[in-house]
Specification:
Strand content: 15-25%
Shape: globular
Number of helices: 6
Helix content: 25-40%
Strand order of the largest sheet: 2-3-1-4-5-6
Order of helices and strands: EHEEHEHEHEHH
CATH class: Alpha Beta
Structural class: alpha/beta
Length: about 190
């Protein structure tokens, strides 16, 4: 079973760390700004997804390629209430697609702040479609842990499937993933 590397990128204060916290512990708390990067691991029964939560401040922008190098999945996060964060997300996607072939998930976070929205969902969907990205609007504050885990799982299965076409039994094992024994198991669709 292969181990995978997942990297979160985006402008500061978009909620990258809050998304990681929602995924790993199904909780939310206001976070301090990440300095450099933080590593968390998701155990999926025989394999690990390393989750790299990177700093979004401009002064750390030059370090981003160090973290996303050899990534299997990249989540690019923007804040739906911050137009500049969406502009930065578009630049990040362009850089990623120039530098490497990687599956990218675009997440518009802070969906709970709909009344303050600056980035139209239709615009983000159009960008995601043009760039062949997966897309989700999400609220790390109130969102479903299982929705985010399912999205990551589906993308990881796709990555593993592309890497092991010669070994289909490996894909079957991956589909039997058990994320965390202690986490709730809801069947939801996004």
């Amino acid at each position: 079973m292969p181990n995978l590397k997942l990297v979160l990128l985006g402008k500061e204060n978009t909620g990258k760390t809050s998304i990681v916290l929602r995924v790993t512990s199904n909780s939310f708390q206001d976070q301090n700004t990440t300095i450099g990067a933080a590593l968390t691991k998701l155990d999926f029964g025989g394999g690990i997804i390393q989750v790299w939560d990177t700093a979004g401040q401009e002064r750390f922008a030059k370090l981003a390629p160090v973290y996303y190098r050899n990534a299997d999945l990249v989540i690019v996060v923007y804040d739906i209430t911050d137009r500049l964060s969406f502009d930065r997300a578009k630049v990040l996607v362009q850089e990623l697609q120039q530098d490497m072939t990687v599956l990218i998930i675009l997440i518009g976070n802070k969906k709970d702040l709909e009344s303050e929205r600056e980035v139209c969902a239709k615009e983000a969907i159009q960008f995601a479609n043009q760039r062949q990205l997966r897309f989700l609007e999400y609220s790390a504050k109130f969102g479903s842990q299982s929705d985010m885990l399912n999205l990551i799982k589906q993308c990881a299965i796709e990555v593993v499937g592309n890497e092991v076409k010669q070994k289909p039994n490996q894909l079957e094992k991956f589909e039997d993933v058990r994320w965390n024994k202690n986490k709730e198991k809801k069947e939801t669709c996004c």
